[in-house]
C-alpha cells in the first residue's frame, strides 16, 4: 500500500511517499480502506519532537490518528462491523500503532464506531480525537442542563466541538476568542462570544454571571491560561483542561473549592486501558451528530495525500479555521 513516512524526526522532518506492506488483520480488528485523515496538534508535536515524547513511534513511522473509511475485511470475534461499513475513529499514529497516513489501517474495534450518515468522510475524519476529548472533559466535569459554561478557545479544534456539545447538553454557553473571525464562528455555532483581548475576566464574569462565575469552565488553551479558568469559575465550580503540562499555583482553586479534571484522551490507545470507552463515546457522538447537535468545521483549504506536509504547516501556522483534513482516497 501507499503510505507517507517520517524517516527522521525534527523541526525539518518531511513526509516521504513509500510502498509498505498492507497491515495484517487481527482478532478483534477490522481492515479499513482510509478515505480521509485529519491533522491534530499532537501529530505535529510528534513529527517535530520525536522521541522527546514517550509515545512517539519508532521511525520510519506512519503518523496520523484520526480517520474515516470503509471496512474491507473483518477479523475474528468482530460482531458490530461488516464489510462495506463506513466507520470513523482514532486508532493509530503513536507507540506501536501504525497511523492513518496510509491507504489502509487495521483498527481495534474498541476504538471505532459507525460514521454519522449525515457527514462526509472528510467531516467524519475531523472529529474523533477532538470530539472524544471534548465529550470526556464535559461529562467528567458533570455538565448539566441550565449551567453556565465557559469554553476557552471556542474556535479551535477541541473548543468548537466542546462548545456545541455543551449546548447539546442544555447549557448556556459562552466562549472566548481573540479576533473577528473567531468571534463570528463562536456566535455562528450558538454561543455568546467573549473577546478576551478586549475584556478582563472580572468584566465578563460580572457581565454574564453577575459576578458569581461560571459553573463549568472547559479550557482547551490550558497552560498559562489555567489560572484564568480558576478566576472565571464559580465557587465549588468545575474546570476541565486538555493542556496541563505546566507548574501551577493552586491557591485560588483551593480557596474556591474547585474541581480540576485533566483530559488526556490518548490513554486508552497507549495503555490498552478501557479502549471500549472510546467506541462508546464515538457511538454517542454519532447519535448527537445525526440529531443535529454537532457539526465539525473544516478549514477552507483542501489537501491531497501527497500534501500532508502542507497540511501540517497549515495547522502550525495558526491560520486554519476549523480542522485541517487530508484526503487519502476517493
Automatic annotation (TrEMBL):
Superkingdom assignment: Bacteria
Keyword NADP on entry: yes
One Pfam entry name: ADH_zinc_N_2
Keyword NADP recorded: yes
UniProt xrefs under CDD domains: MDR6 (cd08272)
Protein's name according to its UniProt entry: NADPH2:quinone reductase
Keywords: NADP
Alphabetized SUPFAM superfamilies for the sequence: GroES-like, NAD(P)-binding Rossmann-fold domains
Domain Enoyl reductase (ER): 10-326
Coiled coil region boundaries: none
GO molecular function: oxidoreductase activity
Amino acid at each position: 500500500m501507499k503510505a507517507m513516512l517520517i524517516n527522521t524526526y525534527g523541526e525539518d522532518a518531511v513526509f516521504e511517499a513509500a510502498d509498505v506492506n498492507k497491515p495484517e488483520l487481527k482478532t478483534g480488528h477490522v481492515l479499513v480502506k482510509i478515505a480521509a485523515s485529519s491533522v491534530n496538534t499532537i501529530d505535529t508535536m510528534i513529527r517535530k519532537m520525536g522521541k522527546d515524547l514517550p509515545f512517539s513511534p519508532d521511525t520510519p513511522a506512519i503518523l496520523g490518528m484520526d480517520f474515516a473509511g470503509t471496512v474491507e475485511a473483518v477479523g475474528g470475534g468482530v460482531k458490530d462491523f461488516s464489510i462495506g461499513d463506513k466507520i470513523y475513529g482514532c486508532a493509530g499514529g503513536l507507540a506501536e500503532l501504525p497511523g492513518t497516513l496510509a491507504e489502509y489501517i487495521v483498527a481495534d474495534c474498541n476504538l471505532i464506531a459507525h460514521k454519522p450518515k449525515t457527514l462526509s468522510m472528510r467531516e467524519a475524519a475531523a472529529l474523533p480525537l477532538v470530539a472524544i476529548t471534548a465529550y470526556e472533559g464535559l461529562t467528567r466535569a458533570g455538565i448539566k442542563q441550565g449551567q453556565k459554561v465557559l469554553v476557552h478557545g471556542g474556535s479551535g479544534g477541541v473548543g468548537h466541538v466542546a462548545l456545541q456539545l455543551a449546548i447539546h447538553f442544555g447549557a448556556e454557553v459562552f466562549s472566548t476568542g481573540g479576533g473577528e473571525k473567531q468571534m463570528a464562528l463562536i456566535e455562528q455555532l450558538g454561543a455568546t462570544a467573549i473577546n478576551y483581548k478586549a475584556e478582563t475576566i472580572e468584566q465578563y464574569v460580572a457581565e454574564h454571571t453577575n459576578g458569581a462565575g461560571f459553573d463549568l469552565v472547559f479550557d482547551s488553551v490550558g497552560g498559562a491560561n489555567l489560572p484564568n479558568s480558576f478566576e472565571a469559575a464559580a465557587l465549588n465550580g468545575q474546570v476541565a483542561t486538555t493542556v496541563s503540562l505546566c507548574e501551577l499555583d493552586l491557591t485560588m482553586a483551593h480557596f474556591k473549592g474547585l474541581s480540576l479534571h485533566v483530559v488526556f484522551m490518548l490513554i486508552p490507545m497507549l495503555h490498552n486501558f478501557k479502549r471500549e470507552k472510546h467506541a462508546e463515546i464515538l457511538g454517542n457522538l454519532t447519535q448527537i451528530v445525526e440529531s443535529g447537535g454537532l457539526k465539525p468545521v473544516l478549514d477552507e483549504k483542501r489537501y491531497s495525500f501527497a500534501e500532508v506536509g502542507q497540511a501540517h504547516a497549515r495547522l502550525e501556522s495558526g491560520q486554519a479555521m476549523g480542522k485541517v483534513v487530508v484526503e487519502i482516497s476517493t
